[in-house]
Please model this.
Amino acid sequence: MNRRSLLAIALAILPIVALAADPRRDAMLSDYAAEARRLDAGFTAFSPQRGETLFRTAWNGGDARTSSCTACHTANPRQAGRNAKTGRPIEPVAVSANPRRFTDKVEVEKHFLRDCKSVLGRECTALEKGDYITFMAGQ
Ligand code: HEC
Model:
């Protein structure tokens, strides 16, 4: 492959990578990893599979209108959602569809607290939060 086509490919890929990656999300994930390790010395890494299970499972213990994250965020994270309680629209939660996701720690913590209580009837753990963000970052 010649240098010009290599350059063309690099220029085509660059904006995608630049859009999706965000140092604030990386910092957030390292904070959650440190917390997960503090709670369980056996912690090794976050898992997008566990994050997806958290997202799709119908839980017991929360508000009956919202037994799953998908009740508001829909089964397709790349799609816009709708708040099952208020009917208000919600922007997509997948990072590919919404690169600003998981970049503001205060917002993220606020919604994890409220949404996990609404769905699971309890707060999410650092492990669950890291798994969820890791899943959404790959969507
Ligand atoms: C009752 C509806 C509802 C349910 C159920 C719900 N969410 Fe949300 N979620 C929202 C709304 C509304 C927002 C804020 C609006 C926005 O960010 O677009 C939000 C935002 C978030 C955010 C903030 C993301 C960011 O970067 O700003 C996180 C994290 C989140 N939700 C996680 C979850 C998880 C995990 C579940 C399932 C355990 C869940 N949500 C279930 C309504 C819901």
In short: The two ends are 31 Å apart (CA to CA). Residues 62 and 121 are 4 Å apart (CA to CA).
